[in-house]
Amino acid sequence: MCSSNPRNILPEPPEELKRLSAELATLIREKITINGPIPFSEYMEMALYEPGLGYYSAGLQKFGEGGDFVTAPQLGNVFARCLAKQIEQIGNKLGRYEIVEAGAGSGILAADLIKALQESHPPVRYRILERSAHLRQVQKETLEQLVPQWMDKISWLDKPPSEGWQGIFLANEVLDALTVERFCVENGSISQMQVTAGPGGFGWFKGSCPQAMQDQIQAIVSSLDQQPGTGYCSELNTSLPAWLQAVSASLTKGLALFIDYGYARKDYYQPQHRDGTLICHYQHRAHDDPFKWPGLTDISASVDFTALAEAADYCELEVSGYTSQAMFLLACGLDEILAQNEFLSERERLKVNNQVRSLTLPGEMGERFQVMALSRGLDEDLSDDLRGFSFSDLRYRL
Predict the structure, then answer these.
(1) 120 occurs within a structural domain
(2) Which end of the chain has the smaller Cβ count within 10 Å, N or C?
């Protein structure tokens, strides 16, 4: 479970935001009063997605310097320009193709991808799967400003496409925001970490673990080289296969690309990760208290990429590549972008160099972020020769 760092290290939010958080906390408390302690996944779902009050549903700035965290697209267009090379390879093979992006954030990645692709082989349309009405508006404003000529080819989806389509499904920093269960191992038994409410706020409660979840955890534990000891706590995404099936079922031919921070399973469940990977962000400060100001704090967990590969098997998708973000970007022409630096001003060169460092250094995003490609219907020679995985293929770690 989360460790007990002092709660007063974070800046106080404005009174108006405190009231919104208190309103959400009241709804969660009412649910607990009626049902008793709830699974952490239910708490996380409400904290992030409760209509009008959850972190991704309320009208709060989340991305960039004024938000709570910075994603790769916020750093500049280097990330998108490299990613476009992988998309272009698939697009050239398919002919007519489209892009469906899940959770498009501020919309800047979509804009930069369209710019990078429009001179070579652009998609016939770009669709965004976004459940937050507020973020939809942010994305629309971004795209209207940066690629106004494309607005008739851009649309938003409430749910995954139902009709068959071919192209690229893109999910950058989406999987880490899917709800997870928390569990704890003690004296050989497994407890489900649930959420309860008391006079001091929300807290952890060790409940009985549902049999299906217990079977999953025991299978994971038995596959590890080192067994976790008593007091070991971590996370499990029990909804991943169903989510992947929902977003990929209509993809008849193409590639699904997932970029996120995470590990292969044997690294994810290392004994030294004895408190799991759950992390919260508020005003560019990372902390470990998911119960602090619900609705104002982002909650996420690292991705178990082995679980994603297993979900791919369930969905009849082929795992066509797995590597670090640094190796993916290098394979997708990062050196070509750097070679163009000599034509830039000193200030612009510095900006590009700073982007590259953040995207590729091991202590930054380079190793912490991983990239996985899942394919369906592609020729075998193409699915085994994806550009982004030509420098390094880590599928053996899965």
Answers:
(1) yes
(2) C
| Residues in Cβ contact with 240 at an 8 Å cutoff, skipping those fewer than 6 apart | 175, 178, 307, 308, 311
Q: How confident is the model at residue 7 (pLDDT cuts 50, 70, 90)?
A: very low
The Cα 216–Cα 78 span in angstroms is 39
Instruction: Please indicate, yes or no, whether residues 148 and 245 belong to a single structural domain of this protein.
Output: yes
What is the SS3 assignment for 315?
A: coil
pTM: 0.92
CB 203 within 8 A of CB 195: yes
Q: Which long-range contacts (CB under 8 A, 24 or more apart) does 247-250 make?
A: 247/102, 247/129, 247/160, 247/169, 247/171, 248/160, 248/169, 248/315, 248/317, 248/374, 248/376, 249/160, 249/315, 250/160, 250/161, 250/162, 250/163, 250/164, 250/165
Q: Which domain-ending residue is among 217, 236, 255?
A: 236
CATH of the domain at 334: 3.40.50.12710
Task: Specify whether 228 is located in the same domain as 254.
Answer: no
Residues 345-367 pLDDT 10s: 878 878 888 888 888 888 888 89
pLDDT in tens, 64-85: 455 455 678 778 788 999 999 9
SS3 (DSSP) at 100: strand
Q: 374-387: per-residue pLDDT in tens?
A: 999 998 878 779 99
- Per-residue pLDDT tens over the stretch 297-324: 999 999 999 999 999 999 999 999 999 9
Cβ-based burial of 167 (10 A; exposed 0-12, middle 13-18, buried ≥19): buried
The total number of residues shown for the chain amounts to 398
What range defines the domain where residue 218 resides? Answer: 181-236
Does residue 248 share a domain with residue 134?
Answer: yes
Residues 249 and 353 in one domain: yes
For residue 395, count CB atoms less than 10 angstroms from its CB and return exposed for 0-12, middle for 13-18, buried for 19 or more: middle
Q: Based on the domain organization, do 257 and 374 belong to the same domain?
A: yes
Alpha helices, DSSP H, located in the chain:
15-35, 40-49, 72-75, 78-94, 108-117, 133-146, 211-223, 240-248, 265-268, 305-314, 325-331, 334-339, 346-360, 380-383
- Within this chain, do residues 107 and 189 fall inside the same structural domain, yes or no? no
Same domain as 153, residue 249: yes
Instruction: Judge whether 80 lies within some domain.
Output: yes
